[in-house]
Amino acid sequence: MRDRETESEFDRTLIEKLRDPSTREKAFVDLVQRYSKPLYSQIRRLVLNHSDCDNLLQEVFIKAWKGIASFRGDSKLYTWLYRIAYHEALDHLRWKQQRREHEVEIGEENSFLIERLVADPYFDPDEAELKLQKAIAHLPPKQRQVFLLRFYDELPYSEIRSLTGTSEGALKSSYHHAIQKIKAELTDEE
Amino acid sequence: MTEQKDSKLGRSRQESLKHYSIPEGYFSDLSGRIMERIGTLYQEESRKSTLMLRFRPYLTVAASLFLLFSLYFVISPIYNDGRESGPPERVSPIESASPLASNTLPKTDWELYLSNRAADEEEEFWLETVYTP
């Protein structure tokens, strides 16, 4: 509760500074320092590869810089940034998938993610982890999003609802389906 | 809760996360790199707007000329609508022959040759169209 108050207080002060041209730059550096780690984690789980994640994270903050004037403050600053990051990552995945379909034969959906992961020097290769990520990559976007937020961040459904704008019932159902699909895929591979 | 989730997948989040790493010092210089990119973007935008300002007068003149030409081509057919349309009137060669049509006497051999030729053609034209034996 206290953390939330501190967070909303921090957000309010930061937004005021971001809207003032004289303090804007300094406030933006504070924003990057505060939210870069959680956003990095969210994007990395979606795109897996560090280099892709780094590019996307920078794009997210550039979009935030351009769009901060239009941020009305209806949601938390992190929620706003998370949504930019999520859509940015999804666009990236769609673009990669389309490019792959044009260049080579149509393969498994999101199989390029595993290839990028294997090629990533910041990934310690592990067969079980590759299987898990392959199963996660096969999930539809919504189920993948809920699964990642619940499994890795252990967020309560109420918080996932505020981040995604989806009802709790739909989130529970998506998570349940995601778990079933991943389990089935892991069992099949064994 | 975590244990329950782990038992469902047979793998914990910690087990999964330990396989991923980040370059050392990545977050410490991230804000610097982002601000640098933002600065570059602003420089590009201001360069574009400077170019736009510099070329604005030329663009205005070009656009005005284009507009005038467009208007001419739109308006001139409207004014020509009143005229009769049909096959072009047959014009006497002597009227169209340049040296004589310009009300000046032939000065050079070439002009003289042309005027003689035009006279021959005029005679033929007269015989064909006007003369009745």
List the helices and strands and how they pair.
The complex is a heterodimer of chains A (190) and B (133).
Chain A: H1 2-19, H2 24-47, H3 50-67, H4 77-103, H5 111-119, H6 127-137, H7 141-151, H8 157-164, H9 168-189
Helix pairs in contact in A: 1-2, 2-3, 2-4, 3-4, 5-6, 6-9, 7-9
Chain B: H1 2-9, H2 13-17, H3 30-80, H4 93-96, H5 98-101, H6 109-129
Task: Describe this protein's structure.
The complex is a heterodimer of chains A (190) and B (133). In chain A, helix 5 packs antiparallel against helix 6 (127-137). Chain A is mainly α and 190 residues long. In chain A, 78% of the residues lie in helices and 0% in strands. Chain B has 133 residues and is mainly α. Chain B is built from 6 helices and no strands. At the A-B interface, helix 2, helix 3, helix 6 and helix 9 of A face helix 1, helix 2 and helix 3 of B.
Structural class assignment of chain B: mainly alpha
The global form of chain A is globular
Largest inter-chain contact set = A-B, 32 and 27 residues
Task: Count the DSSP helices of chain A.
Answer: 9
Number of strands of chain B: 0
CA(first)-CA(last) distance of chain A:
44 Å
- As an assembly, this protein is heterodimer
- The assigned structural class of chain A equals mainly alpha
The H/E string of chain B reads HHHHHH
How far apart lie the N and C ends of chain B?
123 Å
Strand content of chain A: under 5%
Strand content of chain B: under 5%
The whole-number mean of residue pLDDT values of chain A reads: 88
**Major sheet details of chain A:** none
What about the largest sheet of chain B? none
Radius of gyration of chain B: 42 Å
Mean pLDDT of chain B: 76
